[in-house]
Known about the structure:
The chain is an alpha/beta fold.
Amino acid sequence: GFSTSILLQAVASEVALVNKSSGLQRELQVVLEDQEATDFRPAVKYIRGCLSEMKGLTAVFSTVGRTYFEQCVPTESLYFTTSFLAAHYLNTDKPLQGMDTGCSLQLIRRLGEVKGNRAALTEEERIQVGLLEKKAADDWEEFFVLRAKELKVGGQIFVTSGAAVRYDTPEYQQYTDNRMVCSLHQTWWYMVDAVYQMIKEGKIDKSEEKLFVTAAVNRTLDEVKEPFLRKDSLVYQAGLRLLHAEHAVAKHPKSILPSEVPMLSEEDLKKQAWMYRKEIQTYMAPMASVALLKSGLRSKEQVEGLISEMFDLVERYFYEKKEVHMSKVVFVVVAEKVE
Length: 339
């Protein structure tokens, strides 16, 4: 809600200026897309409140309960579209032949442990990494092709998502010096660890692990740019042209600096862990709920109880490991649709 509202306020300001200078009264149509189980009400209330202070502007809200691997709005109906910290999730409904989705969860965890150093992986792990990267590249291209179809010519897309920073680059050293190496990925690791703990305790079956946590890949900046630079790519052929791409550190408005964590009291540390847990549960729980309910293996009450227990464990990990600053290394991409 916060990131979306900041960008929407900028867009709304431009619309309000056009209305004032032209004498017209154009309305701002806002469409929010998320998983079908998402409760959109908090986000709509928050964003509506942010836009309500703008004079001479009417904002109309709609919600769409679909995944971003589907077309979410009519063709060429959008002037501007955004995606915040979402596009790193893979389309697990279309796995590559030979790729084990459950194995992918462990594999991405393993890549984080070795800081991306493939020499530290086994031969089988390297094979799976290759499949995982192929899958990530295919999904990245599919994501933008669908968004291009939704955009009008001249429309733009703004995307931020978890960034991978190679262990052997100056950027990696820069972010590790600041304890900022993608806590988004660390958050995801803790969720995987929580699921494995619940499997160990016999609370869920191993076959259910991929229903609780969706496989995700943080891409490098080169991987992000690649489909925009290759003229035979589906993204390029769909008319999208890259305007801007860079690394950035996304700082949550309620977060603290990493350097401040050691100075927290036990009570404040627990509060930060709880706040972080609520933040990620808001956007992660719906995905798990949809997958588990679709499987037919659990009742709605069981699903809600197990997901709550998983996030109880995640909150405990945040507290115990003092990983509560909530800062993330991301990439920022801006592209425009041309004729």
